[in-house]
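Quick one:
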Amino acid sequence: MTPEQMRDASLLELFSLEAEAQTQVLSAGLMALERNPAQPDQLEACMRAAHSLKGAARIVGIDAGVSVAHVMEDCLVAAQEGRLLLRPEHIDALLQGTDLLMRIATPGDQGGEAAVPGFVAQLTALLDPSAAPLTAIVPAPLAVPLPPLAEPAVLGETLAEPEPTPPRKPGKRPAEGGERVLRVTADRLNSLLDLSSKSLVETQRLKPYLATLQRLKRMHGQGMRALDGLKGQLEDSGQGPEVLQALAQTQQLLAETQQILLQQAADLDEFGWQASQRAQLLYDTALACRMRPLADVLTGQSRMVRDLGRSLGKPVRLVVEGDKTQVDRDVLEKLEAPLTHLLRNAVDHGIELPERRLLAGKPAEGTLRLRASHQAGLLILELSDDGAGIDLAGLSRSIVERRLSPAETVAQMSEAELLTFLFLPGFSLRDTVTEVSGRGVGLDAVQHMVRELRGAIELTQVAGQGCCFHLEVPLTLSVVRSLVVEEGGEAYAFPLAHIERTLDVPSEAIVQIEGRQHFWHEDRHIGLVAASQLLNRPASQREGQHLRVVVIRERDQLYGVAVERLIGERVLVVMPLDPRLGKVQDISSGALLDDGSVVLIIDVEDLLRSVEKLLSTGRLERIERGASAARGVVRRRVLVVDDSLTVRELQRKLLTHRGYEVSVAVDGMDGWNALRSDDFDLLITDIDMPRMDGIELVTLVRRDHRLQSLPVMVVSYKDREEDRRRGLDAGADYYLAKASFHDDALLDAVEELIGGAQG
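Output:
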């Protein structure tokens, strides 16, 4: 490439950057002028932007850009001088010119220049008062292309793609506030953040050295005092001058070394403090390099909302609060598509036509409001509209018609339960397909993308007043606030976004329900699992009267994970695992703690899938509670298997009152799972039960080498000899008929088989 070509290429790139900046000014100013056509500051800003683009296009030799910017400047100057009142058709045409300028400035777009003559003629005709009235101008194509969804789009509908405009080049945003902007690759930013986090960790390693010096200083002082005492004893005992002189020299050397030690300890303390401050500043600065204001993904959204509303005959405006909220670049990129689709959805579905709004006592112009804020390491977004809300009656009919739920069940559902159906794949409230909606796919794709960001989305509505989407996503994917725990000598981190709370659960509060361990908290029972089994670590020896439990939540699932030790809350810099490892079960990434040790970050969603898998296969291990051992008393444990709630509870109360520890199971399959995951001294089972009857259960017990010696009692309504023989032949040790059942008979049989409650 010749120097002249290089120079031309550089000028074109600069023109593209300037066009991006100035068209943003034009779009914002023109939408403000649409609401108040006589704002002098906005007219001045738009005129200057058009004038700057005209001059820039002339410098780089783009005649088409000169023509478009010139006719736009004429229109704006006429409005400034009072010769022209900007009407909606003028605003539409000027917005079309803004998009056309951006297309002309984008390399590779051949269609932009071809549209210039028609646009110039159109706007010239609007400027000529004597020209015949033109037909209404179609609103300008959207300035920002709709970002692609990984899956189909919004509230029951796929939204029509706008006319394609060339994508913006990454890293070319204009300077803000006069600051220079440099283009840096994401990999380099990630490397910088990684190195800064490691330097922060390294400075923490100075603390042990300083502590050692402080301890050495104390020991040195103790040695000096010991020598002083020794000197006094020697003087009292009348030792010779040679001994006392040698002792004095030793004291002098120790005094000199003490001064050196004191100075070195002070210097190291000062160096460590300064190094940690600089490392923290370096880390904070590197992290800030990845953060951008939310406004970066909202560029053009106000224009998109306005244009879509115009095309649907609905005047709508977007009000943004908190657009300077800082968010990680990666999160911003992934938020753009769902936000765009939710905004389009609100215009299409939420906002009513002006006539209906006026009848309802609302202003003709609809309002979308987007609020952004920080909260506990999360980005909170609330997107609300002042439209009609959701037609719950129509939603209920659609649920029944699609056979998603019976009419009787739908009639009893709460509003929140009904709204969850809108997030199902393929659900739509529209009967016909239009350019904007009605293709039968919906909010499921938006929800999927939000969950990929480890976030959540919730929909609420007020009939006649509008809807509100509440989104929570992490501020950054590079850093995660976590609770660090220890299990089997290894450190693991649970992201705080998934933690409901931490608890100390008393050992006696753990109950066995249908073969699974639970504890009660705030009037609900929470399933309890051992972190050691989930993470394949050696089972820890749990001592004391309490278990340390981390209660984790993933959507509607809630589980308590018993851990060995809670280390504390930490802010961790995420370090991706080596791709050669593939997907590590239950682990999402790694990080370094302050002392340089490695911690693995838990993938909570994957962890809960592992819990469900263990439950379905009956391999969930029982957590040893240790309370009985602490008292020095071992209570005999009995498993009662019966599909009758009345019989189960009767037997449980009788045996518990006598001092036995009792667990219950609702059928043979549930009982078999309990036997494989826990230890019992006696099995009491019915015969006729769903899924697996008592005979099958006893047969399985006798075939299992671990359970072969377990005493088994059959309690059944069947009192015929052949039924008794079947039970005993299967391997039961005792057969008790319910027809002759009474309290003493059951308790006597249990004592006969295993003795008293305490062994």
